[in-house]
Specification:
The structure holds four protein chains of four kinds.
Chain A: E1 4-8, E2 11-14, H1 18-27, E3 33-37, E4 53-54, H2 65-75, H3 82-102, E5 116-124, E6 129-135, H4 141-156, E7 159-162, E8 164-174, E9 177-187, E10 193-197, E11 200-203, H5 224-231, E12 236-237, E13 242-249, H6 259-262, E14 266-268, H7 276-279, H8 289-301, E15 313-316, H9 322-328, H10 330-340, E16 349-358, E17 362-363, E18 369-371, E19 377-383, E20 388-389, H11 401-423, H12 435-446, H13 453-467, H14 474-491, H15 505-529, H16 547-550, E21 552-558, E22 570-576
Parallel strand pairs in A: 1-10, 2-3, 2-11, 3-7, 11-19, 17-20
Antiparallel strand pairs in A: 4-6, 5-6, 8-9, 9-10, 12-21, 13-16, 14-15, 15-16, 18-19, 21-22
Helix pairs in contact in A: 1-4, 1-11, 2-3, 3-11, 5-15, 13-14, 13-15, 14-15
Chain B: H1 20-47, H2 57-64, H3 67-95, H4 99-126, H5 142-148
Chain C: E1 12-21, E2 31-40, H1 45-56, E3 75-78, E4 81-84, E5 99-102, E6 109-111, E7 114-115, H2 118-126, H3 145-150, H4 168-173, H5 179-189, H6 197-204, H7 218-222, H8 229-242
Parallel strand pairs in C: 1-5
Antiparallel strand pairs in C: 1-2, 3-4, 3-5, 6-7
Helix pairs in contact in C: 2-5, 5-6, 5-8
The chains are: A alpha/beta, B mainly alpha, C alpha+beta, D mainly alpha.
Bound molecules: flavin-adenine dinucleotide, protoporphyrin IX containing FE, iron/sulfur cluster (SF4), FE3-S4 cluster (F3S) and FE2/S2 (inorganic) cluster.
Amino acid sequence: MTKVHHHEFDVVIVGAGGAGMRAAIEAGPHARTAVITKLFPTRSHTGAAQGGMAAALANVEEDSWEWHTFDTVKGGDYLVDQDAAEILAKESVQAVIDLENMGLPFNRTPDGKIDQRRFGGHTRDHGKAPVRRSCYAADRTGHMILQTLYQTCVKLGIEFFNEFYVLDMIMTEVDGQEVPAAVVAYDLATGEIHIVRGKSIVYATGGFGKIFKTTSNAHTLTGDGIGIIWRKGLPLEDMEFYQFHPTGLAGLGILLSEAARGEGGILRNASGERFMERYAPTIKDLAPRDMVARAMANEVREGRGAGPNKDYVLLDLTHLEPAVIDAKLPDITEFARTYLGVEPYTEPVPVFPTAHYAMGGIPTNIKAEVLRDNDTVVPGLYAAGECACVSVHGANRLGTNSLLDINVFGKRAGMYAVEYAKTAKLPPLPDNAEAGVIALLDKVRNSKGDEKVAVLRKELQDTMDANAQVYRTEESLNEALNKISELRARYEKISIQDHGQRFNTDLLEAVELGFLLDLAEVLAYASRERRESRGGHFREDYLERNDDKFMVHSMLYREGEPTGEIGAGIRVDWKPVVITNYQPMERKY
Amino acid sequence: MSVQIEIPNSPRKQRVTNWEKYGWLYMRISGPLLIVLIFTHVFVNLFTGEGIKQIDFAFVAGKWADPFWQWWDVAMLWLALIHGTLGMRTVINDYTEKPKLRTALVGTLWSVSGALILLGTLVVFTFDPCPPTSNPDLLPSFCEAIASS
Amino acid sequence: MSDVKEIAEIPSFTVKLSIRRFDPEKSEEASWQEYEVEMHATDRVLDALHKIKWEQDGSLTFRRSCAHGVCGSDAVRINGRNRLACKTLIKDLDINSTITVEPIKGLPVEKDLIVDMNPFYQAYKDINPFLVANDKPEKERLQSPEDRARYDDTTKCILCAACTTSCPVFWTDGQYFGPAAIVNAHRFIFDSRDEEADVRLDILNDKEGVWRCRTTFNCTEACPRGIEVTKAIAEVKQAILRGRP
Amino acid sequence: MSVVPAGTLYRGKVGMWSWVLHRISGVAIFFFLLVHILDTALVRVSPEAYNVVIESYKTPVIGLAELGLVGAILFHGLNGVRIILVDFWSKGTKYQNIMFWIVLVLAVGITAYFTPGHLERVLEF
Ligand SMILES: Cc1cc2nc3c(=O)[nH]c(=O)nc-3n(C[C@H](O)[C@H](O)[C@H](O)COP(=O)(O)OP(=O)(O)OC[C@H]3O[C@@H](n4cnc5c(N)ncnc54)[C@H](O)[C@@H]3O)c2cc1C
Ligand code: HEM
Ligand code: SF4
Ligand code: F3S
Ligand code: FES
């Protein structure tokens, strides 16, 4: 019998990345708060973020939050909810100041203010010229944010449950409404189960890049949080919009921040041509990511790729002063040296797009409350960060807007979760709350087939890279969906080798694969249903943006168990986009 | 190990002054002094003249007849022994885990060192270069002069 | 379609790994187990561990996340030295002899390459690793680029524990705060905005504080972030002697 | 919870091995010093007693050990200076490696310089 432990809190936060800890800092001092995380907090993937965090501080040149809003809306190909984008841009200044006050070591201007630099898609006065809006700490901004937030949590004495995998959420009915009562977590160290009850529950579990092969995401970004929400029958929004970052180290996917281009790096094809001049004549290499990524993929497709297989392009930093590179881009140049053996001072670095960021996720409103349909909230349930979709990123996220998102909406999630917890009662816990997780684990543990987790995962990633990446068609997406159905069937026949209780990562990788399959399927399905090209979603069979039909968010619902038929068990619905100031226009840079 | 809830940070109590810093500094101050003292000592005793062969009672008595060498050797004794004892204490602290054993060993160490420092100091200052009952051949040459006077 | 190939056709070869296995559910004793895997020169030790786990022995247990040296999960002892498995390229090791991989030293081993990190984190927390500043600025606190540069090196720490568990003094009784805690104290002691340098200096003036460092430089050599750890410790020692940063 | 006994030896570099040597030499010198104080104290007993003990210092076996002692003192002392420089000189940590080799060369060199004469004296005994 697995041992089951019970805990009660006011606010339960799942995930200790930037969003989770930012929420904890708001909640901790006002309510009994627990943070449950499958990784030790400072190992969360927020720490990998490099470039910076956008805020119209106007420390180095004129800037305003309206311009920032506009850039965000335009960058997201107008699929952005503009009320949310306004909040993001307006509250960005305070978010940066908060971090600085907590101790974050931003780079400084000569007069001691927070320094700012350029970043793709951020412009002055509605697209006139690039603006310096990204606040940064060398190319370790995410690292510094994560460390600073963790330090603040230590200061506040926040309670963490480290290396606890949340695998299920218990819903219950209170006053005729479904509300979350608890999350069920698996303690990696002991294999025991913990039921953590809370009045409000915040999801901040990050992304799911591991559905792709080439990705900048960590091995642990398997989308568990989003998967749990999905399995509870709650909807997911805009899942077709996945960002491919232009400059991943070729073959590896390790990210070289856009800051490299912000500081003057240039993309070149095999013949040394600065090809972005052809695709985005005004801002060239600093065009939004989806455009650059597609341009790169196109160069390679049309035979202008570099290297022995002509399958990548080159990021040229050689014209920059080594001192500038050392001061502003130390880490990413080290990646090039360590992993490719390329010296960025003198040689261009091989790069190719890498799966990077999920624009979609758990739908929320601007109070970070999770939605159960287009407008009804689930009381007491919150989500923030990459796992959430407040829709500030729309169809394509601007660089530096995600670190901003996790801070602004992480903070909001914490605030509103506390506010709710102050008046709410602890929802009753249904009997046998642990049953779901125990069944899930036992199924994997006892399965006696001959399929291997790693093989299935690799096949999934391969098919996603081949069929649902930068370029997509009805055909390729159907192929992906077919493959996923096949993998789903084979997943029933997996077996694992480790049957122990302690630190059983073999078991958890199998569970994580289950979530990956779910999310890959939703992504491919949503991509197929969106028969247009917009932002990060590019359909070769529907080249144009189609505002008449698709100026809407997709809302995906799980209806029943997947049957093995393509897309069976998934239903798509649509949700209007909130437009305040900016009417959709063609996106040109 | 069941629940791994981290211990929230609790404010730290101010502790009494500890001597670690001074011990550490002492090692670094005595070190260079010891270089001068010991290297000269070794040089005079082993490199110059007959080297090790010259060392006997008469040699020692000859040196200590001069207060300069008396003070030299006493300084060396104190500095080196305290330096060595502090060093040995570090070594003991590193390799003993039981507090009792640790206290016992360090206690013994200091007792032995203290005793030896006292002994050595006494020897140097109460030393008689020309003990009257001894074989004059073993004594330094100046004893004859003293004896005959 | 866009199936990314390796940079150039890289030759593959067989490497032997000897991994220190330990599972208290099976045996009280740890033992070495040998594996052979096909690897490419650009692969990292983490890739080899994954290959073994995914293809040969699912019970092999280790921590990892980011796979490019920024999260600090996978500090292990490779060929006798503390390294991040994800930052150690196979080609940089001698592939003609067996590569040994074992858990970092001085923390209780839980299973295979996983150690109990709690004592390590506790030492970190003990130095008050957070900014203490009581003024309430309206905007950001100002800090000159020079003042910012003063503590830049030690802000890079990812708490991987490679340094602390390479320190011979830490191995002796595990009571020493260890280099990582000192590095993180340094980060605040020399931050011009911080007001509690004296408290931190006092904490590190402890019996188990900086004075236990014997300048063996293992920490500096092990740090995957290239932090000059021993130097940071020396600076803290001097600050304690001075009584101020 | 169990601490599994260490596997291989940690392969530290110069810094670690210099510390190992420093510690071994320090402990060795310490014990020698204890003995040395006691034997010197014999001068208070009688010249005969002192001389008898001192004679044993001049035998070949002990004579060889004395070489080791000289080497140990040289190394410990010079390495002590290196440590002090690492602690107090801002560039000390940068040059610790090269300083170690200087210490070693000096210690070995001076000991070697001293060896022939000393051996001659103890061997003819
Ligand atoms: C290489 C890279 C560079 C980037 N650079 C930038 C940049 O320059 N600017 C920018 O704005 N954005 C950048 N981004 C994007 C941004 O960093 C991320 O989107 C953001 O950090 C996500 O934060 P998060 O808090 O939502 O999630 P994460 O930081 O990923 O945290 C997820 C947390 O959830 C926990 N968790 C997950 N599943 C479970 C579970 N089942 N049970 C318990 N806990 C769980 C994890 O332990 C972790 O603590 C970058 C991203 C990458 C990958
Ligand atoms: C010749 C001049 C000497 C110098 C310059 C010197 C210098 C030093 C220094 C600086 C240390 C501290 C090392 C550290 O903190 O890491 C030290 C340690 C030590 N010294 Fe000396 N020393 C000298 C002579 C001696 C003598 C004569 C003895 C024996 C009595 C001795 C025994 C020790 C011991 C036992 C240690 C501790 C070693 C350790 O902790 O690893 N030293 N020495
Ligand atoms: S100082 Fe370096 S080795 Fe030590 S924990 Fe930090 S990053 Fe790791
Ligand atoms: S390894 Fe240890 S002894 Fe000092 S220099 Fe580093 S802390
Ligand atoms: S896996 Fe993150 S540091 Fe190695």
